[in-house]
Specification:
The chain has 503 residues and is an alpha+beta fold. It has three domains: 3-17 and 24-105, no CATH class; 114-277, no CATH class; 290-498, 3-Layer(aba) Sandwich (Rossmann fold), CATH 3.40.50. It has helices at residues 55-65, 68-75, 87-93, 119-138, 178-195, 199-205, 212-217, 229-239, 250-256, 261-277, 290-293, 295-312, 329-335, 348-362, 410-416, 421-431, 445-451, 463-470, 495-498, and strands spanning 15-17, 28-31, 40-45, 48-53, 82-84, 101-105, 141-143, 151-154, 157-160, 166-168, 317-323, 338-345, 371-375, 403-406, 434-440, 474-481, 487-494. The strands form four sheets. Strands 13-12-11-14-15-17-16 form a seven-stranded mixed beta sheet, sandwiched between helices. A six-stranded antiparallel beta sheet has the order 1-2-3-4-6-5. A two-stranded antiparallel ribbon has the order 7-10. β11 (317-323), α13 and β12 (338-345) form a beta-alpha-beta unit. α4 runs antiparallel to α5 (178-195), α5 (178-195) packs across α8 and α16 (421-431) runs parallel beside α18. The chain is globular.
């Protein structure tokens, strides 16, 4: 695989179990995608995130970690907090293989991937890469990878996690990861901004991004005059000569021609200006003003807010999921009582607006938001992906929620997506946490809209059937009828938890 097409090492991605009898009672699990960077493999050991360095990688780490820019960015939370472990501690761990040095990284609250991010999240990730690379070049370093998988989000803040990507920059060496940057970040952003092509399906469909040739197929000839399209798209295709000798190295050719640091810096500066100026205005949808446009939603807001706050304030939660979060109003309530809230919605515009509001707040506060907004369709959740399905985790494998808010969603799953009601409840039960479910009856205006052009085959869709489906796994703690008269809220607790200590 070409260097500029390598998938990076993501510290908090899928894990590959690698347990032998020599490791007991300790357990070490190699991160599923870390095999792509043999010099800085990552593993999870007793819930600690470690990076095992070869001799060359240790040298690069020592050079990078001692620079003022690296320390400043790590202090600011833009590079993941990392420290090197002492040799005696490493020896006591009985790790699965020898290494020249071992680093420990701080864990991020929840793993997310670029194909679940909004436009603004990918845009900020691209700008973070350019900022770090510019600083690194000034210290005699370069990033060997340029992928959004090297970044995780803590709330609305992007954090660079792949410290193994820093390597010494040889005089005249070009930026070999430029093509990867374009394919995984620049091209999807340009398509979203200029052609309204959602970036999530593109990145989910191809983990290595979209090539320049593919990118241009989405565009008209008029688009060649848009900033960046000709320079970074058309010229790449023109210079990618199929007839080029197999023995020819583009990197070597550029190095031999005197490709200096100043050329890279000019390219980075131009990319930064280009990406900063990209704008995407989400289209207006039925969900844009959902909470204020529909009379029954307005009527129910106060009572629903009180119910959600009552449940949320009952304890301190480690992880909360808000499914179908819309504008994030209830995610914000849960965040007052939780370490992390993952707010999910299939509507890209809703998530983009939520991200922008969270990002604006984070820029003016010292404490980052606890809310992580993600573009997720509950009826089509992110699957395990990559080599042997181990590089990228299923959503459910990245952290089990202690509380799930399922508000204004269940009728869309059952009637809109034809998922049997017991199946929905079974999935919620598999998550292992408490749930808050809003159930609209068939007389509800939104349910009537969903049924308008359908044959009513949903005999299982009733409050009685919902409660019967909950009964084997849950105990219903609270019920409330909303003022509109057609919606009911339920707070259900897993029976194994209900049998424990009463809260």
């Amino acid at each position: 695989m070409d260097a500029d097409h390598q998938q990076p090492t993501s510290t908090f991605d899928d894990i590959e179990t690698n347990v032998g009898s020599s490791l007991q009672p300790s357990m070490s699990e190699f991160e599923g995608g870390s095999f792509r960077d043999r010099s800085a493999r990552v593993l999870v050991h007793n819930d600690r995130v470690l990076r095992l360095l070869t001799t060359d990688a240790q040298t690069a780490w020592e050079q990078a970690s001692r620079t003022p820019f690296f320390q400043a960015l790590m202090t600011a939370g833009r590079i993941v907090s990392t420290h090197e472990l002492p040799r005696d501690e490493i020896a006591a761990m009985r790790l699965p293989c020898e290494s020249s040095a071992v680093l420990e990284h701080a864990r991020v609250p929840f793993v997310s991937y670029p194909y679940e991010w909004s436009f603004g999240m990918l845009q900020r990730t691209a700008l973070l890469h350019l900022e770090i690379l510019t600083e690194a070049l000034g210290a005699g370093l370069i990033l060997k990878d340029a992928s959004p998988y090297n970044v995780m989000f803590c709330g609305a803040n992007p954090v660079f996690i792949d410290v193994g990507s820093f390597v010494p920059h040889a005089p005249g060496e070009p930026w070999a990861a430029y093509r990867q940057f374009c394919e995984l970040m620049l091209f999807p952003l340009l398509l979203q901004a200029h052609r309204q092509v959602d970036l999530q399906p593109i990145l989910r469909g191809e983990l290595e991004g979209i090539s320049a040739r593919q990118f241009l197929k989405w565009l008209s000839w008029r688009d060649l005059f848009r900033p960046g399209v000709f320079t970074h798209g058309w010229l790449q295709v023109a210079l990618d000569r199929p007839s080029q000798s197999a023995t020819t190295s583009t990197v070597s050719d550029l190095q031999a021609s005197g490709f200096g640091t100043e050329l890279i810096l000019r390219n980075l500066s131009g990319l930064k200006r280009l990406i900063e100026r990209l704008k995407w205005k989400p289209a207006e949808t039925q969900w844009t003003d959902y909470r204020t446009a529909l009379p029954h939603v307005v009527e129910d807001t106060a009572a629903k807010t009180e119910f959600v706050r009552s449940v949320s304030s009952s304890r301190r939660w480690s992880l909360v999921w808000d499914l179908g979060c819309n504008d994030g109003a209830f995610a914000r309530i849960a965040a007052e009582y939780a370490e992390t809230v993952v707010a999910m919605d299939s509507d890209h515009g809703c998530i983009e607006r939520l991200y922008r509001s969270l990002s604006d707040v984070d820029e003016h506060t010292t404490a980052p938001s606890a809310i992580l907004p993600l573009c997720v369709n509950v009826a089509n959740l992110s699957p395990a992906m990559g080599w042997r399905g181990r590089e990228r985790k299923r959503l459910e494998e990245r952290g089990r929620p202690e509380l799930v808010l399922c508000l204004g969603l269940i009728h869309h799953l059952v009637i809109g997506h034809n998922i049997p009601l017991p199946e929905v409840v079974d999935w919620l039960a598999s998550l292992g946490g408490e749930v808050v479910i809003e159930f609209p009856s068939k007389q509800d205006a939104m349910v009537q809209r969903l049924l308008r052009n359908k044959r009513d085959q949903y005999e299982d869709y009733s409050l009685e059937q919902l409660e019967a489906s909950l009964m084997p796994c849950f105990e219903i703690r609270q019920r409330a009828s909303l003022p509109s008269g057609q919606r009911t809220l339920l707070h259900a607790v897993p029976k194994f938890a209900a049998r424990g200590t009463e809260r």
